[in-house]
Amino acid sequence: xxxxxxxxxxxxxxxxxxxxxxxxxxxxxxxxxxxxxxxxxxxxxxxxxxxxxxxxxxxxxxxxxxxxxxxxxxxxxxxxxxxxxxxxxxxxxxxxxxxxxxxxxxxxxxxxxxxxxxxxxxxxxxxxxxxxxxxxxxxxxxxxxxxxxxxxxxxxxxxxxxxxxxxxxxxxxxxxxxxxxxxxxxxxxxxxxxxxxxxxxxxxxxxxxxxxxxxxxxxxxxxxxxxxxxxxxx
Length: 234
Known about the structure:
By secondary structure, this protein is mostly helical. The chain contains 14 helices and no strands. It has helices at 9-19, 25-38, 44-50, 56-68, 75-83, 90-101, 107-116, 122-132, 140-147, 153-166, 171-181, 185-198, 204-213, 217-232. The chain is elongated and about 70 Å long.
């Protein structure tokens, strides 16, 4: 019996890179998934090229694979990921949000999203806000305020979450306003939760009002929780 020498990670990576160009979408999907699991920086260039694949799942798994290589990605690869926040596939856009959250992307590279927000489609606007909510770049504050004017409650809720992650104290007044005035329970609940994480004595009247007057159990729960959190810190 002839023993075969196991392939090295580099050899396997090279073979999978070739399969990323296979005519069969299933083969390309498997190759992208496998490259993500291996995590060899040698595959970055090929995976970036696969972001333009006609198959949605190939693009999705290529994006996921690049996210797994987040700490190794050069600026060019990060720019390519940012550009794909406008991908026509929702699954790819969500993969971009996750992938970018695993990188050490610079403010300079990601600031292009703020510039693109106004001229983007509704779906892309949501992806932009979801992406920026993963980071703590001060420039995002103004964009979160802009997003809070959106008719889409999910965009507004994500903007509230982004303000919470940013930790800018100016956002507390905005959160109080949306806690008491927003028409969507998800937005009001998010605002109540974030006030409990960041707020203080000045936020307690709004939380008490929400606890006493909001008609939904979810807001009542988070307002009560936040009042307890703030009370325990005083």
